[in-house]
Specification:
Chain A: Keywords: Calcium, Coiled coil, Receptor. The complex is a heterodimer of chains A (776) and B (166). With 776 residues, chain A is mainly α. Chain A is 63% helix and 1% strand. The longest helix of chain A is centred in the middle third of the chain and has 52 residues. Chain B is an alpha+beta fold. Classes of the chains: A mainly alpha (776), B alpha+beta (166).
Chain lengths: 776, 166
């Protein structure tokens, strides 16, 4: 039935119920050299081991209980089989027990006296803590209180191994009741010492490996949090961590549990989790080593981070606590608490301070997250608004959908934050481990480490998902903005060159015209154009060119191809085109003479999103006031009526209003925004002052490309929002013409035609911006 | 009933079955079990030769294995890695998602009707997307070993539920 190994499936059996028990196996498997044989050299060894044994009264008392249980009352010795059956109930591996026996029974007598039996018990305790059975570990663990965990139920009945039912019934971990420090060895919650060892291992295998020649301190400059353990390293490390006791299937499951974000590598928290799983499971007998599912809450990334820190500071407290980062850190893993017995005295205070620290840490982190989310919300709004403007003339449905998505995203974000705040405020009802949370229901200021782990995972997991989502969102938006930006840059370079090559003839038109007024009536193309009855021939040709401009990109291209093929119309089309160029040039040069027409440069628009809408507002109001003053001076009734009919709403997207001036101003604001994005990008890379030279270089390139010797534009030339408009349509022509000769022809045409065609200037500029809006 | 039955199998090199999943619970007691969990008639103790009825599972596996041959034929003719309706048998159809080297094949047997084969491609792609982090990225997963990842199992089940429950 069970396709996968489950925790409770087989029911871990007591070791004692295994058929091949220790007493038989030990005697049978013992090498010949270890057979009971009295040797004088063994005497000193035994003395050494016994001398290293300095039992505290508590330990002695506990050991004596077992001693009295198994000793032979007549002789006072512990016979081999009785000792073996007792030691076997410590659930240690046979290999370990064999080594322990060799160490304890140094005289090879086959039985132990009291001290030797104590040595064996102590070695069992050491092994249960992860140490190795050796004199060295006896020396290292000297002074620490170690009481082995031995199954008491079968201890009361030494013949339990003959009745497997009784042994398995006595199984459910009664060891914690006998041990002085319950659950210390086999707990899923790692201790600080263990975490220190894991960190040292991480440092050794993943940090130092990249720079083999460097000194240890150099390797430490890499933050622990930045280390990643790849699969190939894990292949090497994992078996060592469990001392080659776990099958590859279990290792696979451990990896699966530990790689909690499933990116194919382990970061620090994940490695801590994996290492602890390996350590704990590696100490258990093979039939008991079942991967816990689901992952214990204490081993989740978030709770590990909350409890033990994220390793962000180089060589943090835990690596420092680790004993001197040994050459083979695996010896550390097998001997925990080697150098830190002193900390055991201050365990309580340390735990409390750590707990309060972790709570503070969590609160700080939560605050950061909240700020971040606020920022995200603002940014999301700005992005949505920007999209609403830029996509105003494209598909409505996609626009609405995107906007709705944005809104939903922001709403979600708020919801999660509120939920987290509620959670922090003392109602950890939704947390993962209910029992712990309800046992000590915390206020936010109740610094209890247990409550931290109780509500820690759930809320931070939520936040993590949310942040990932938000990150994806912003990345997507950035990409879109970047694409737009690049397009604009290309177009801008070309039109700048065009402006520079002297199509600035019609300065004589002066500054009386307001481009905002022109924009007011142009967006939806020719059908909105007022038809003027008395047009000259050139004027009547204008709609053809206008259609050319107002068509989509592809239309433009195809039309230009048609132009190339049709030699008859070429001259005329070229004249039209060059006239258009000339109009654009005129427009921009004219605009530059109006000081308040300069765009409001908002470089911080992307960095500080809420001001984007403010910028749009500002641009609009400035434009409007300018227009109204000019309209008042020129007395154009329609423009005034337009601006009146607009109402006083500060900002309305053109899509919904059907008005063009809004579109124009908003689009101008968008261009500024893109400017801001770019300048922000520059500000990241290089000083802010580099921008003009960047611009100049671009224009120089353009000039070289067109092989003209016309003066470059002045450096302080402003980047007109309107120039971008024209650029887009012109860049289409540029790309299709492709040659400098034709461009030159264009210019000459512009010079000749532009001087004669002031009548339809207004109409041309209208058509140009129409083209822009239909394009965008 | 059989219309809405889906049998998903991952086939490794040498046509070894790495993982399989039967969806949904239309067959009475087959609720969310992989077919390897299903006891055979012989195991149930009620197997008698003259009562033998080719079960629906046998049919599904037959279609899946037949599809493997068609994969090898079509593999050289197309660069697509997702092939829908690669093989039809009566009212059953098999669709396939291939890994880049086509060593591992994701075969889904489903009803041939449009309704039943609606989300097939999306499902196969999603399973493949889950296969990469859950199985391929695990350094302790031997190549061509049966997939025993419980998480992957959960993911596959949920994907099937999402795409095929409608």
């Amino acid at each position: 039935m069970s396709f996968y190994p489950r925790a409770g499936a087989g029911g871990p059996r007591a070791l004692g119920s295994r058929p091949g028990d220790l007493s038989g196996g030990l005697a049978g498997n013992r090498p010949a050299s270890l057979q009971p044989a009295r040797s004088t050299s063994g005497q000193t060894n035994s003395n050494e081991a016994v001398r290293l044994l300095q039992l505290s009264p508590t330990e002695r008392e506990a050991y004596l209980v077992w001693y009295r249980e198994v000793r032979d009352p007549a002789t006072g010795y512990v016979p081999g089989d009785a000792a073996a059956s007792l030691l076997r109930r410590s659930n240690l591996y046979k290999d370990l027990l064999r080594q322990i026996w060799v160490l304890a029974d140094t005289r090879r007598r086959g039985y132990l006296d009291q001290d030797e039996f104590f040595v064996a018990l102590r070695l069992v305790a050491i092994c249960q803590r992860g140490g190795e059975p050796s004199l060295d570990s006896l020396r290292r663990f000297r002074g620490m209180q170690l009481i082995p965990q031995i199954d008491p139920a079968s201890a009361s009945r030494p013949s339990a191994q003959t009745t497997p039912g009784a042994a398995s019934a006595a199984q459910p971990r009664a060891s914690s009741s006998t041990s002085a420090n319950p659950g210390e060895t086999l707990s899923w919650t790692p201790t600080y010492e263990q975490i220190a060892e894991y960190d040292a291992l991480m440092r050794q295998y993943c940090g130092g490996g990249t720079q083999p020649g460097r000194h240890q301190s150099a390797a430490r400059l890499v933050r622990l949090a930045d280390l990643r353990m790849t699969g190939s390293i894990a292949r090497e490390v994992f078996p060592k961590l469990c001392q080659h006791r776990l099958s590859s299937a279990i290792l696979r499951d451990i990896w699966e549990l530990a790689d909690q974000d499933r990116d194919g590598q382990l970061d620090l928290q994940e490695f801590r989790c994996a290492a602890h799983l390996l350590t704990v499971l590696g100490r258990q007998p093979a039939d008991k080593a079942v991967v816990p599912r689901p992952l214990p809450p204490a081993l989740r990334k978030q709770s590990l981070r909350l409890r033990f820190g994220d390793g962000a500071n180089t060589a943090g407290e835990f690596t420092e606590a680790a004993p001197s980062v040994p050459s083979d850190a695996l010896s550390v893993i097998s001997s925990p608490n080697a150098e830190v017995p002193a900390s055991r005295n201050t365990d309580l205070a340390g735990a409390f301070s750590a707990a309060s620290k972790s709570v503070e840490d969590a609160q700080r982190r939560l605050k950061e997250l909240r700020d971040h989310l606020d920022l995200l919300e603002v940014r999301g709004r700005a992005l949505a608004e920007k999209k609403r403007v830029t996509l105003a003339n494209s598909s409505t449905s996609t626009l609405e959908r995107i906007y709705a998505e944005e809104q939903a995203f922001v709403r979600d974000a708020r919801g999660v934050v509120e939920a987290c705040l509620l959670d922090l405020g003392g109602t950890p009802g939704q947390s993962q481990s209910e029992s712990v949370a309800t046992a000590s229901r915390p206020g936010p200021e109740l610094e209890s480490e247990r409550t931290m782990t109780a509500w820690g995972p759930s809320f931070s997991l939520n936040l993590q998902q949310l942040l990932i989502k938000a990150k994806n969102e912003t990345a997507r938006e950035r990409a879109k903005v970047k694409v737009l930006e690049e397009e604009l840059q290309i177009a801008r370079r070309q039109i700048q060159d065009m402006v520079a090559t002297g199509a600035t003839a019609p300065d004589k038109f002066g500054t009386g015209r307001t481009e905002g007024h022109r924009r007011t009536r142009n967006v939806h193309g020719a059908k909105l154009e007022p038809h003027e009855p008395g047009k000259s021939a050139t004027q009547r040709r204008a709609p053809g060119g206008q259609k050319n401009v107002s068509g989509s990109l592809l239309d433009d291209w195809s039309q230009d191809d048609a132009d190339v093929n049709a030699d008859d119309d070429e001259a005329r089309n070229q004249r039209a085109r060059s006239k258009r160029i000339e109009r654009a040039a005129y427009r921009f040069s004219a605009e530059e003479q109006v000081p308040e027409d300069k765009p409001i440069v908002r470089d911080d628009l992307v960095d500080v999103p809420p001001e984007w809408s403010a910028a749009a507002e500002h641009a609009l109001s400035a434009n409007e006031s300018r227009q109204q003053s000019k309209l008042a001076s020129t007395g154009t009734a329609r423009g005034a009526a337009d601006s009146r009919a607009r109402g006083d709403s500060p900002y309305r997207p053109p899509r919904y209003q059907g008005m063009t001036r809004d579109a124009a101003t908003a689009f101008g604001a968008y261009i500024q925004d893109v400017d801001g994005a770019r300048s922000r990008r520059f500000a990241d890379d290089e000083p802010r002052d580099e921008r003009p030279s960047e611009r100049r270089r671009a224009s120089r390139q353009a000039a070289q490309w067109r092989q003209t010797s016309v003066a470059e534009p002045s450096e302080d030339e402003n980047w007109r929002s309107g120039s971008d408009y024209i650029e887009v349509s012109e860049s289409v022509h540029e790309t299709t013409q492709g040659g400098s000769q034709r461009a030159a022809q264009n210019r000459s045409g512009a010079m000749t035609v532009g001087s004669t065609a002031e009548d339809d200037d207004d109409e041309w500029s209208r058509s140009a911006s129409t083209a822009i809006f239909s394009y965008w | 009933m059989s219309e809405r039955l889906y049998y998903f199998v991952i086939v490794g090199r040498d046509d070894r079955v790495l993982y399989d999943l039967l969806y949904p619970a239309s067959l009475s007691e087959l609720d969310w079990r992989t077919s390897s969990e299903l006891s055979s008639p012989a195991e149930r103790g009620d197997f008698e030769p003259h009562h033998f009825i080719p079960s629906i599972q046998v049919l599904l596996q037959f279609v899946a294995y037949s599809a493997l041959d068609h994969i090898e034929e079509k593999y050289w003719l197309t660069s697509a890695r997702s092939l829908k309706h690669i093989f039809r048998f009566r009212d059953w159809s098999a669709s396939v998602q291939l890994t880049p080297n086509a060593a591992t094949r994701f075969v889904l047997v489903h009803g041939a009707s449009d309704d039943a084969s609606r989300n097939v491609r999306a499902f196969l792609h999603a399973v493949y997307e889950a296969y990469v982090p859950h199985v391929v990225c695990n350094p302790f997963q031997e190549e061509d070993a049966p997939i025993t990842s419980k998480r992957f199992h959960e993911v596959a089940k949920n994907l099937a539920k999402r795409y095929f429950s409608g």
